[in-house]
Write a structure and sequence with these properties.
Elements: H1 2-22, E1 35-36, E2 39-40, E3 51-54, E4 63-66, E5 72-73, E6 75-79, E7 88-93, E8 95-96, E9 99-100, E10 102-103
Antiparallel strand pairs: 1-2, 3-4, 4-6, 5-10, 6-7, 8-9
Bound molecules: calcium ion.
Calcium ion (CA) binds next to loops.
Amino acid sequence: MKLMHIFIVGLMILGLSTMNAFAEPPVFNAPVDLIAGEETIPADESGYTVPSLGDWDGDGDLDMMVGTFWEGPIYYYQNIAEEGEPVFEAMGNLQADGENITTNFG
Ligand SMILES: [Ca+2]
């Protein structure tokens, strides 16, 4: 039983050292502002603003919605690029029955 325990621990150590030998740290590009037209897409002060991408208009490319962590509107940006890199155009706030849809805290 003790020999089996040593064998299993040895496999774990070998596995960990193998993982570390081949693991490479991720490489990130410098951060950039998201731009729509000439304007920077707003981010709230919380730092928790998260753009969500989806084909919201059904034309096959990714559009963007941006909500806020604090109470506020949801901004909609349509991708107007014909191909290649996305080009976002501000389309206004998301609305229902003529009223802005807002997010609550959190
Ligand atoms: Ca789209």
